[in-house]
Design goal:
262 residues; alpha/beta; Rossmann fold; 8-stranded mixed β-sheet; 11 helices
């Protein structure tokens, strides 16, 4: 078990494979990197070092329980990269992890070779859809855990995917993201995200990936990220929010093709 101290937190991270490093940053949920990247990390580890941090709010990282900030989580990613001594890295963030990796790239350009955001967004306050969805999660998380799980499942995956796997498999997905105190700390941060001031500072070669059937963070947010990050490339996957679960082969190809040049 590898940990690094960052302020009041002891941040856990996992390292597998050898070669140039890619760091994968998870989104909302106390299960963290293990649940998010369990199927993806091994496939990227062929010829690469894959590093998966568990940020504050996850089960494997301890801290003081204070409200989270994008800047604070970015400092944790920076500390993991420096502790692993693998920089500069290719850095990928999913959902909540997208504004976090954008902040890393903007503030520590020396540590980031290539940047990828997946199903991300730059700010919440002016989007009534996001504000209401995350507020609903907060309310369900403190009153009805099963309803919280159903809401997350319904918005996390496309309707076509849910129908394709059938009722029994859908029911198995519902407990995957329980509304633990750590998860609700993430949701609280989701409501306060605003990295618009950082996006013009990003120098790394960047790929923004949007998900056309995303009902958690509608694809317009990825398109706006692309427009705000100068010189970025853009790609879409016809899937829901967790596109790498619905279409892992397509996702892996996009990532590998983008980070292949060394």
């Amino acid at each position: 078990m590898t940990t690094v101290s960052v302020g009041n937190a002891r941040v856990h991270y996992t390292r597998t494979g050898t070669g140039p490093a890619v760091v994968l940053v998870h989104g909302t949920g106390s299960a963290g990197a293990g649940l998010t990247w369990g199927q993806i990390a091994p496939r990227l580890a062929d010829g690469r070092t894959v590093i998966t941090p568990d940020l504050s709010g996850t089960e494997l990282t301890d801290d003081d329980g204070a409200p989270l900030t994008v800047e604070g989580l970015a400092e944790q990613v920076v500390a993991v990269i420096e502790d692993a001594a693998v920089g500069p890295v290719d850095l990928l963030g999913f959902s909540m992890g997208s504004p976090v990796v954008a902040a890393v790239a903007a503030t520590r350009p020396d540590l980031v070779r290539r940047l990828i955001t997946v199903a991300g967004w730059a700010h919440t306050d002016s989007d009534e859809y996001l504000r209401n969805l995350f507020t609903l999660w907060q309310q369900l998380g403190t009153t009805d855990a099963q309803a919280f799980g159903r809401s997350v499942t319904m918005t996390g995956f496309s309707r076509s995917f849910l129908n394709s796997i059938g009722r029994d498999e859908v029911e198995k997905l519902i407990p995957n993201m329980p509304p633990t105190p750590g998860t609700l700390r993430h949701v609280d941060l989701d409501l306060r995200v605003d990295v618009r001031h950082l996006l013009p500072k990003i120098q790394a070669t960047t790929l923004v990936i949007g998900c056309t059937q995303d009902v958690t963070v509608p694809v317009d947010h990825s398109r706006a990220l692309h427009a705000a990050i100068q010189g970025s490339a853009y790609a879409e996957i016809d899937a829901g929010h967790v596109a790498f679960f619905e279409k892992p082969d397509e996702f892996i190809k996009l990532v590998q093709d983008f980070i292949a040049p060394l």
